[in-house]
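=== RUN LOG ===
request id: a7f3
mode: sequence -> structure
chains: 1
length: 315
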Amino acid sequence: MADETTPQAAPPQKSFADKLQSINKATIYAVLFAVTSIPLFFPMQVPNEPEKATIDLYNKVMSIPPGSTVLMASDWTNSTRGESAGQFKALLRIFMRKGIKTAIYTSADPQAPKVARDTLRTLNEERRTKGEKPYEEWNDWVSLGFFPAAEGTAVSIGTDVRKAFAGKTARDPSGNQRDVFESPVLANINKVSDFPMLIVLTASNTSNITIERLNGKVPLGMMVTGVMGPETQVYYDSRQLFGLSKGLKGVYDLEILMDQGADTKYGKIPAGFPGAVNRDQGSLYYPTLHFAVALMIIAVIIGNVGMFVSRRRTR
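=== RESULT ===
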């Protein structure tokens, strides 16, 4: 007698709605990688209206007389380099081209001074490639190092800036370590109001601490990450800040203003440095951000369409 075998049932076919809701994660990541890579290989310009806060920051920085010294709190590290490095580069390119000196300190992270120094090295390599004079340590900028207590440091700067940075040294062109107040950067600085401005470039709450302790003692500008933008905007709106750059949008605004200027509802802003290297991380990453957000919106729509169709089918 022949054995009888029972045929196995074929697996149920997924409906179109089920397929929409069960796209493989690897596929999603592959699409994300491909889509966000497009602007990196094919540079493009996003239609853009610079924000008033960024325009005010740019105009104020561009108005500083050559030879002046700006105090900068460089309170960022590589964890926010996507936004912060672009802000730092844009600001330093303006200082370098206008002959503005910079004294840099940090009270946020002990890694920050090295990150700033490495970025300055990259900018100087760019200048050498273009046959331009490097931005020299001692003559053009000094690093004042890391101060672990942000509140105490801000109070000390506002009270007696020479005492706040007492004992700090920098390397002069001959290789000797000397007191920073002997350098051309700080030789004429006796109090915090001698600086035309203090710019805080931060990814932490040192922005709030600086405003609390130094507001009214020196003009304050801020360059913050995108997530910090809304809370910092309040200080700009209340005129405690002369200008504000927020995240990638702020970087892109600065690069556009430097490169080609803008005709805005706040007035026509002439190009700061046409023909120079102005486009950098903002011009690369801001379009990429748009592609990523567009993909996220499409994914949400696909998921909701799949859920809607599936519910209609099961009724």
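=== NOTES ===
The domain at 52-280 is CATH 3.40.50 (Rossmann fold).
DSSP finds eleven helices and ten strands in the chain.
=== END ===
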